Each structure stands twice: as C-alpha cells, then as structure tokens.
Records
---
Amino acid sequence: MSVVTSVVQRLRPEAAALKAAPREFLRTHAERLRTVTAWRVGRELLAIAVLVVLDVYPGFIAGEKPFQGWSVVLVGLGYVGLYVLRLGFPALALLAATWVAFTLEHGGVATIIMLSYAAGYRIGSWQRSLVTAALGLAVYMVAWDLSAPTLNGPLGSWIVLTVYGMVVVLPFLVGRYTAQRNALVAALQEREERVVRERRMVSRQVRLRERNRIAQDMHDSLGHRLSLISVHAGALSLDSELGEKQREAVQVLRSAALTAMEELRGVIGVLRRDEPDEEQVRRTVDAIDELVEGARRAGVRVSLVRGGQPCPLPAKVSHAAYRIAQEGLTNASKHAPGASVQVTVKYEPDALVVEVRNNPPRVKPRDGVGFGLVGLGERVRLAGGMLHVGELPSGGFRIAAVLPYEDTAAADDEPSDDGIPVEQSKPATGIRKWAGVGSIVLAGMVVLVVVAGYVWLGSRPLTKVVPAQLYERASVGDDESALRAGFPGGSSPVLGDITQGADPEPAGADCEYFVTDDQSYTSGGVKVVRFCFADGKLVEKKIHLHHGA
C-alpha cells in the first residue's frame, strides 16, 4: 500500500502539469497570434499558393492527376489544412502528410518538403526530432508498400531510402539548422545587451563614487571656509565701534555666507544622488521674490515684474527659473556694477518666460570666463527649455529663457555609457557561422551518401530493360532471332523473381521476362513484359505487374 501511495505522490505533479498543458498551449498560441505581422501573413499565403500550384493544380510535380473537379478541391484543402496544422503540431502534420501523399497517389512532394522543414524548425528537443524522424520513416515505408511499386534488391531499397532522405530528412535538417542558428544569434544579441546594461551599471556606480568624492571635498573645503566667514561676520556685527551702515553691510555679508552654505549643501545633495535633493524644493520660481529682495539689500537697483496666471510647474522647471534669475543678478552685479536690473517672470499660455536684463554699466565690465552661463544653458536644456544670452542694442545685457509647463524627455540627465545605447549594440559575428553546424553537416552527409550511392549503382549493370516500343512492334509469328537481336544484355534482374504474378507459360514454349521502361507511379507495381517462343516463332507476348517477393 505504501508503494502505491509513493507512486501516486510522484505522479501528482505530472498530473497537474498535464492538466495545465492545454491552458498553457492556448495561452502561448494566443500570444503568438497577437504578434502576427503583415509580412508573416503574406509569407504564409505565398507558401500556400506555391503548394497548390506544385501539388494540386496544375500540379507541376504531381505527375498523373486522377482527381478532377471537386476531388481536386478536396485534395487542395487537405494539403492546405496540413500546412496550417504545422503551426501548432508540426510532428503530427508531417506524419499525416507523409501518409496522405504516398497513399493518395497524387503529388504531395512539395507539401512534405515544406512540412519537413517546418518540423525541423519548430521541434526544439533533439529527442523529439529523432522520434519524429523514426515514426516518419515507418509511416513512409508502410505507405510505399501500399501504393508505390515495391522494389527489392539494392536498387529498390536504395530508391526507397533516397526518396525519404531527400524529401523528408534533408529539409528537416535544414529547418533544424535554421532554428539553431536563429536561437544562437538571439542568445548572442541578448548576451550583448546584458553586457551593455552591466557596463552601464558599473559606469553609473563609478560616476556616483566620483560625485560623492567631489561632494565630500566641497563639504570639507568650501563648507569650512564659508562657516568661518559666517562666524567672523557674526562676531564683527557685535563690535560696538561699527556704525549703522557698516553693521548693515556686515549683516548682508553674513547673510550671503549663510545662503552660500545652504546652496552648497544643495549642490552636495545633487552630487550625492542617493540623498534627497532639497535644493529644488526650496529654490523655486516663487523664491525669486526673496532673491530680488536680497539683491536690493546688497545695493543692487533691481525691479521684479510678474505677469500671467501662475500655474503648477515641474520641479526642474521651477528650479531652472530660479537659477536663471540668480545667474542674471550675479552677472549684473559682477559685470555691470551700479546699473539698474529688471527681472521678469511671465506665465505665457504655452510656456514660462524668465528674463533678466541690465542697463549699460557705468564702468568697464570685468572679463569673465563665462562658466556660469555654460552651466545655465545645460540646466535649461535638461528642463526642456531654450536659453538666449546676448547684448542689447542699448549696450546692456539680457538673459532670457523659455521653459515648458511639463516635464519633457530632455530632462533625462543620466548620460549614456560611452555614447552607446543598448539598441545600437551589435553582437559579435565571429561565432554565428558555427550555429547549428551539426544539423548542416548531417544534411551534407545525406546528400553525399545519396549521390555516392547512385554513382555506385549506376556503374553496375543492374537489370534487363526493354523499351516499350519493342514490345509494341512485336507481333505473334515474328521471327525469334530478329526479336532476340533487340533484347538487352546485362546481368540478372535485381527485382527478385519477376515471373511472379504472370500467367502460366504456354506448353513447350521458351519465355523471356524483361522490365519495361514504361513505368508509372500509379500502376501499383513494376511492369514486366514476357515473350514466349516456339519453333523459332513468337507465340505470345504479355504484360503483368510484379509486386515483389
């Protein structure tokens, strides 16, 4: 009882898998139907048209056509149905087509070739492929025995195996080679994409480490200096000897130092991507008022103009607007001291416009390297906007930007690895030529064996064959010596006892049996002619079908 229980427990997972197999089958093929393209449909229709033309009507390789009218339609539908069946059951379609084609005596060679290729392409396991090939050979042999001439001896056996090798085995191996090659190429492409992704991850980790190092250096150096400035400015503001104006200037200096420390912490937060970025939260378009007020306290003659109906902005856009105003005020105070400055923030129907312009400076401006404007242009680009920088006709300077109201694809600030996107990566081609080499070698061996066998058999006198015209010209009463002069030479027939199936010979007559060259696939046997002689004259000629031993 325990043994039975153990067996049941072992079979239970298999039973569950079998129960789920139909659903899995339907789900898989439903997904494949959703990926059908116009190219694949056109290819299938073209293959069906070739199949019908070659095997059904006009049936260029079908030989004699015993079916007419609706019979041809039924045969065509049957072949097309088998061709479509290969999509879900390639092995079953091949076996059924082998049986139908060799028993209906009406073409089917093109159908079998296509289905053999499809079976080799679609059957993944080599064990299933081997079983399918063996079953196909068995079905083929049975069908051949029932409908085609049964040949024996070296030539007959070789013809039977040759037809199977060229019509079934060779396309099957070519299909399997193609499938293996495609699978290997797909694996190489997937491997290359994975390598690119891994390289991008490693590169990103390197960038993060470098950012953290820069952030740490900035924190240790600039943070320390700014802290000292803030502390000394605070201590200086308590000096009783300072006047009111000096005390106010010291307070502005201390406020600037504290603001610089806050902005430094924001920059460090940006560099350390794993830390939350609070800079964009605090430095927004709404904080431009505070920025302008701070510039006024520092002695800059600045005015702020706002227009339009405010609306919610993405974080990057709002922060970029703040940085534009900040950079404009910084440039004005540095390069045009004493000039009046106007900051404009205007909500247009489709974009936010931020502009900072200053009048001509009273003194010659200092030269600058312009790194701030370069960084500002990059910041605006990442926000999806456009930046314009240039001198005014009046001699002043203008910085203006147009920023979108929504996030755009340009906001992706993650640089690509070495400029190589994944979709442009190309897999290595040096290994592709070895894909499926086993299948193609076997296919070559099949062709080589077939050709070598026919060369060997063709070099030997295999049987006596008479032309059909000789049989038609012969008449009872003709001279024996004249007829025998036209008989072929050669060795004994390799078809076995070709007298089997013949009528009894006339009494006292000497009969000769020959295979005629007038053979047909639909005759059901090998046509053998018999000439019987007596007293130097032809007394009988007959034809019978030899069905083998």
Note: Strands lie at 302-307, 341-347, 352-358, 386-391, 397-403, 465-466, 510-516, 526-534, 537-546.
---
Amino acid sequence: MMRSRGYLAFIIGICLTAATCYAVVTTQRQQAQDNFQRDVEKVARDTEVRLQTYFDMLLGIKGMYALEDRIDRQRFHRFVTELKLDRRYPGFQAIQFVRMVPETELAAFTAAVKGDTAIDARGYPDFLVHPASRRDLHYIIEYTEPLKGNENAFGLDLAALPPHLRALELGRDSGEIVATERITLVQDSSGEPGFVARAPVYRSGPPLQTVEQRRAALVGFVAIVFRVNTLMREVIDASLLEHIHVRIDDGGYPGARDVQPSSVDTLLYDSAGKVSTHQARSAPLDGMAQQKDLMVGQRRWLMRFEGYGGTRYSRSQLPVLVIGVAGFIISALIAALLVSTRRVIDAKHGLEYSLAELERQKSNVEQARSDLSVVAETLKQAQTNLQTSEKMASLGALVAGVAHELNTPIGNSLLTASALSDMVRDFERRLAADGGLKRSVLETHLADARKACDIMNSSLTRAADLITSFKQVAVDQASGQRRRFQLDEVVHDTLATYAAQLRRAGCEVKVDVPAGLEFDSYPGSLSQVLSNLIGNALLHGFDGRDGGAIVIEARREGADLVKLRFSDNGAGMTAGTLHKIFDPFFTTKLGQGGSGLGMNIVYNIVTGVLRGTIRVESEPGAGTTVTLVLPTRAPEGAAPEPVHRPALQP
C-alpha cells in the first residue's frame, strides 16, 4: 500500500515539474520576444524621427526661398553655416541647391557661375555642367555646402541621370519632399549606399494649386545628400547590433510598376557588415523576425529585423534544468519517504553504524595528514638542498667559464715569455761571440723585448680583470652579504664570467645600464639572478640556433625603484610553458642540463631577498623579456620562505 502511494506521489511530482518547466520556457520566450519587439519599435521610431528632423530642416531652407526665390551663393552659404550642420546634423553629406535652367539660358548660366565672386574672389573658372547633354530643361547643382569633399557634384546636371530626374519631376509636380532610390554618390569614392531628399522651390507669388501651375513656377530644388551608413550610426546603438540584425531595402514609390525585389541594387543598409559576431553563421531565433515599412520622401523603405541569441534575447536553460532536477529529486524523495516508512528503524541503525565508520575514517585521515606533513617537510628540505646544489652548479659553471677565458691571456703570456727568453739567450750568445754588437741589432732586440713586454702586460691585465670580476661575483654569491654597489659594475662583472659561453654561442650582448644606479642590497643574489637568466637564454632560448642577441637595460623608476629588463630574441615560450615557468622542478630540458629550479630560485631571490617584483613576457618565436622592479635599498629583515607556485604577473 505504501509502495503504491510512493509511486503515485512520484508520478504527480514529475507531472508538476514538467508543467513548471513548460511555464518557465514559455515565459522566457515571451520576454525575449517582448524585448525584441521593443528594440524593433525603437529603431524604426528613431529612424523616422531622425529623418523627420532632417526633412524639417530642409523645409526650413525651402521657407527661406519662399520669402525670396533669388538667393545668391553668399546668402545660401551663410544660412547653411549658421545651421551648424556638422554638430547638429552630422548624418548629412551635403546640402545643395539645384537650379532649373532652360537650354536657351545654359550658356548665360554657366558664365554667371564662373564669374560668381561672392565667396571666392577668383570665381569658379573651372565650372562645367556635366555630363554634357542637349535637352529642353537642365537641373544643375548650383550651390553645394560644404564644397570641400563635394566638388564632383558641383555643376552636375541631374536631368541626364534617370533616377534623379524621376525624383525631380515627382517633387516638382507634387510640391512635396521626394527621395531618390538607392544611388552611389558621385562625391563618395567608397561606394556606400546613399540617397538624396529634395524639396521643390517655386517663385513667390504665382498660384500653386495645379500641376501646371507648379511646373510653371518652379525655380529649382533644395536638397540634402545622405550616406545611409552614416545616418544609421546616429540612430542605432552599436551595442544593440550585437544582438539584432537590421537590413533596409528600397521598396520604390507606392504604386510604381517597376518595383524590384530585394537585392544588392535595392540594399540601403545592412548591419551584418558593421559588427563581427556570430550573425553571419547562425540563424535567427524562432519568432524573432519582423518587417517594418517606413515612408521616406514618398519612397517606401523595407526595414527587416532579426534577433539572435545572446544576453539580450537569452533563453537560459539553467532555470529549466534546475527546476527539472529539483522537481525530480523532491519527487523521488517524497516517494522514497513514503516507501521507506517501515524502514526508518533499520535506517537509524545503519546511520549509527555509518557514524562509527566515519569516526574510524576520520582517525585514518588524521594519521594520513600527519604522515603527509612529515613527507612535506622532507620534500621541503630536499628542495632546499637541490636549490643549494643549483647555486653551486651555477658557481661551478662560472669557474669553468673563467678558467676557459683565462687560458688565452695566460697562454699568450707564457708563449711571449718563452719567446723573450729565447731572444735573450740568442742576444747573449751573439754578444759573447762577436765581443760587440751593432747599434741596429741592439735596437731590434730592444724593440722585440718591448713588444713582448707589452703583450705580456696586456694579457696579464686581462687575466687580472677576469680574476677580479670572478672573485667579486664568487664572493658575493657565496657570502650573500649586504653592501653598497653600483648596478652597472655587477652587470659587467657577471657578463665577464660568461664571456666564453656567450662567444661560443655566437651571442651578442648589448648593455644599457647607466652609471650612478647605486644599490644598498645583496649583489650576490642579484648576480645569481642574472646568471640564471643568461644560462636559461643559452640553454633554452638559443638552443639549435647559430646566434642570438641579449639586451640588458635599466632605468630609474621614481626615487627608490629601478626597472631592470633582460630580453633575448630566442625561441620564446608557449602560453603553457609561461604559466609554469616559476614552478619548482618544471623544465623543458629534462635530462639535457635543466634541473627545473633556475627560475624558481630567481623568483624566490627577487621577491624574497631583493624584495622586488618580476614579470615574464614571451611568445613562440618572439623571444623572452624578464622585467625586474627592484628597490635601491632592500628592506631590513630575513627573506621569506620560498613560494613554490607563484602566479605570473600580467
């Protein structure tokens, strides 16, 4: 009986869960569609309001002509300038006045424009009506503001261009603002879609009730030239385009018979080319496609909207999943509770047994924790020993490098000394045999002896310098004592000990460390850091390469800090290697000379002993740059414990 009730409760719970999930999905879909609808209405309304604002301004210019139909170039220029269009109406390309010129007056009109000095004292001697054609009436762009950037439109005869002529004749006969179809502006070399809105201008006085009266009184047109992409950037928020696709096509004049289907020739605007998102690859969401018709200058614009998945129109599956899982669990628990009522006592005993077992497990965990502490301490001591070995190995490498470097000057000195000894014996023999020497022989002997002494002096001086540099570096690294030192001296001393290795690797070193950077710190630790960085560059950066370059430069950062940058043009590192570079025992040269402790030691020295910061930047094939920011006076106190897994600084 209890089992049947449990099954029934489980089935009812599952049904309620399914109903709740369906309600949540429906609500989410409705909310997303409501958001999409609001965005569609906003874009369409903002577009209409923006265009109406421009058209109102166009009617304002037309009103100026209603008071006086003969406006000269200077007054037109001044009127347009006072509108401050570039600040108040940035979406336009140009504002123009198109004059109707009969064929019989074309020559006089051309001459008058060429001689117009109202704005430019030189006039417009290059003015030309284009394209050249013979017809009863010409519609010529006489004024265009601004003229700069719109020179190609100056003098354009619109009567020779069928799309423009059709709009002009429609505006002339209707007396209303008329927009052209999609055109490519002659003054725009980018090829972006554009259109022109024009309002007819009539002579003041004559009646304008009929088409014939309007044709007889026509003077010309005032026009605004638009680039649609520029216009829509004012209307649509760029962030919205990440979620909604907007396409605008020219639908033609209402009632026209030559309306073209949507294509490249009718496309006015397509937001897909304005953002780089998933829109070009994915389909719109269900129920997120809509079309709006907008009348623009007696032409019908078809505005198509499509919504895409994302945060704005999201339909998160997480609430449905949570409700489903929670409903299933609750239903199962209720069913299990009803089924297992008779087993409560057995469960109690089982629970007591489980608690006892848990206590035993806890005791085992505590013992394991104690054992792990001992192992961790042992590993820590082993790491300390390995780090000491690494430092001694580095010092041994310095010894080997200096020994190799000393071979040449000492060998030269020995060879020169032997040659000088032979020359002295020969000189003594000749002196004893002849009983006297010529002056030329004595001068030659003295010149050879002086030259041999110079060679021995130069070689022994070089050897002494090497020994001094090595002695200072070795003493600093071995003692770890704090003292005052000059940064450039430590850098040059350290490089001197690696001269042989760098020369064998064909590595060029450039040092840009100004004199006068005095530190009160630990020169041995700083030398150890530079030694490890040089060793890494030779072992990893220039492995398999014929040569390379290392740059060491330093600059003061404020009063108490110095930025020291070590960079090479070697093989670089991948992101995975860069992430683990400071980990102890991590190396890409396991068994080939790399212990995996070099950069861990560098990190511990820089942050613990020198109390500075370190940042590593690298890309495969682009070399590696290590930037140290060090205080000129190291804080007092012992260095902290080593940090085994430091996070890389960005």
Note: Confidence is low (pLDDT under 50) at residues 277-281, 638-650.
